[in-house]
Amino acid sequence: MKLYNLSLSGNCYKVRLFAALAGIDVDIVDVDFLGGEHKRPPLIDLNPWGEIPVLVDGDVVLRDSQAILVYLARKYAGESWLPGDPAGMAEVVQWLSTAANEVQNGPASARLIDKFGYSLDKADTLRRAARILPLLEGRLARHPWLALGRPSIADCAVFPYVALAPEGGVDLTPYPAILAWIERVKGLPGFLSMPGV
């Protein structure tokens, strides 16, 4: 099984983090992103969207970090990280949507601007961060984990770009429950870090 990866990508990190926590063996293939390797064959043939991560597991080829998390959890990690019952699965999936929407368009996009020079609306990313972080804080003030009362792929999906928020000029000090959750995630057996975390 191969993961086409960029070490500074929070979306790639979600997959690496989950694989490490769940003890799933994945061969990491680093992509020359600045050289445009992801826009040329063979990668563009695997993912016509021209994005990473891309997971290849035999005949299965997947793009999108949230989809990859679901696949790995259901195929290799049993019920513990993504339950099969409808209510439990939905509880986790709602956080995958939050990671792909509010977190991606808030703290993650602010980081793209500050760290990588993307031409995005910084004020908008900060407004979005200011909306999602208090909601996360409220959830984590009442629950140790985002879903199910235990670590799940919900935490793996949301964690990277929240933990990396300071790289986008987003201050986490007003959010003690988020900071405590970041430390809980870091304390999980098998935890794998990345630059900035």
Describe the model.
- This protein has 7 helices and 4 strands; from the N terminus they run E-H-E-H-E-E-H-H-H-H-H.
- The model has no long low-confidence stretch (mean pLDDT 97).
- Helix 1 (10-22) crosses helix 6 (153-163) and helix 6 packs across helix 7 (176-186).
- It has 2 domains: 2-76, Glutaredoxin (3-Layer(aba) Sandwich); 86-186, Up-down Bundle (Glutathione S-transferase Yfyf (Class Pi), Chain A, domain 2).
- By secondary structure, it is an alpha+beta fold.
Short description:
With 197 residues, the chain is of the alpha+beta class.
Topology, element by element:
Elements: E1 2-5, H1 10-22, E2 27-30, H2 43-46, E3 54-57, E4 60-63, H3 65-76, H4 86-116, H5 122-142, H6 153-163, H7 176-186
Parallel strand pairs: 1-2
Antiparallel strand pairs: 1-3, 3-4
Helix pairs in contact: 1-3, 1-6, 4-5, 4-6, 5-7, 6-7
